[in-house]
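Q: What would this complex look like in 3D?
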Amino acid sequence: MLIKVTRPTDIKSSEITPKSVFLNRRKFLKTAAVAGAGLAVGQLLPDQAWAGRKLDGIVKGRFATDEEQTSFMSVTSYNNFYEFGTDKNDPVKNSGAFKAKPWTVEIAGECEKPGTYAFEDVIKPHRLEERIYRLRCVEAWSMVVPWVGVPLGDVIKRFAPTSAAKYVAFETIVRPEEMPGQKRPILPWPYVEGLRMDEAMNPLTLLAVGLYGEELLNQNGAPIRLVLPWKYGFKSIKSIVKITFTEKEPPCTWNQQASHEYGFYANVNPQVDHPRWSQAKERRIGEFFKRETLMFNGYADEVASLYSGLDLQRYY
Ligand SMILES: Nc1nc2c(c(=O)[nH]1)N[C@H]1C(S)=C(S)[C@@H](COP(=O)(O)O)O[C@H]1N2
Ligand SMILES: [Mo]
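A: Here is my prediction, written as structure tokens for the whole assembly.
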């Protein structure tokens, strides 16, 4: 529907908010309140909080939207990452000590090539793609983010899952010394998530390593995270250290926390309300009026067939 299939030359670089422009404006605004990010005067951050490294060799991916992209500043300072605290600006404020390098990812379970792999070895064999996706949080706000990453399905194939692998489980790192939110039992740590194998293999599913052409910043899940644009944001697990192929449906943090509010599938669905609020509309960060929420967040053409046998009122 709103998915525009682009050819490599379709997206103008002028459509991307350059970070240099933003950083210069920041200097200019030194004493002003940076309201969009919810940061008040006196809360301005060291530039290091935005010191992402440029990624090379990115090609335009198959999926993009021509909707306006959410500013770099909002994408990197209005976050959910409870490992660093529960306020939207806690992740940018509290993630400065987190070390995303060096990094390894453990591959385990029903596959022919389990082991502990260096981050570089997981990503290097693949071409980095830019994917401009809508992100819809279950809290009813949304963004448009130019991610950089590789299709998860291509990565999974290299580890040769066996026929017993029906699901894929993901785990976030536990490092309370660097992640102050983990010193408190806000959620059971580690944060865990899971997908059915066909969801993991779907071409939309992205293993992201960057955004706006740069490496992921800590607050966005450095160095490696999932991006599942047709599902509520909590499925897009950050700072992944373990991927396990399983026969049974794996546990998911928010589903375990409140199973009547957050399902395993968590597909964006304007017709199924959260018990405490409507999901019919959403607030796009940076906009004033609410927008209608779209079925599967506008990605029905790509993913609706995955759920043809499911009652979406029941398996939400
Ligand atoms: N490990 C971990 N991953 C997480 C979360 C979290 O708290 N911990 N929050 C989720 C939620 S609720 C959302 S909306 C997205 C937000 O991603 P962003 O901050 O990069 O926009 O990350 C998801 N991934
Ligand atoms: Mo979310």
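A: To summarize the key features: Helices lie at 19-28, 72-77, 90-94, 119-123, 152-158, 197-201, 253-257, 300-303. The radius of gyration is 19 Å.
Q: Very helpful, thank you.
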